[in-house]
Specification:
alpha+beta, two-stranded antiparallel sheet, 2 strands, elongated
Length: 58
């Protein structure tokens, strides 16, 4: 695994809310900050509008 920010291989993978996320020991990249699990945490109304619990994924 490589860090998406600095391409370092010094990356730790952990489980966070049921998803595997990367933590870089070199640059401090934390994928938990990027991961948006719940629509209430999304910042824009457009992003909130895209989330629909009743839509089925095909």
């Amino acid at each position: 695994m490589r860090c998406p920010k600095c391409s370092s291989t010094d990356v730790k993978v952990i489980n966070y809310l049921g998803a595997k996320v990367k933590l870089c020991n070199k640059c401090g990249y934390d994928e938990r900050d990027v991961l948006e699990q719940y629509p209430s945490e999304k910042t824009s109304q457009k992003a909130k509008g895209r989330y629909n619990v009743y839509k089925s994924r095909v």
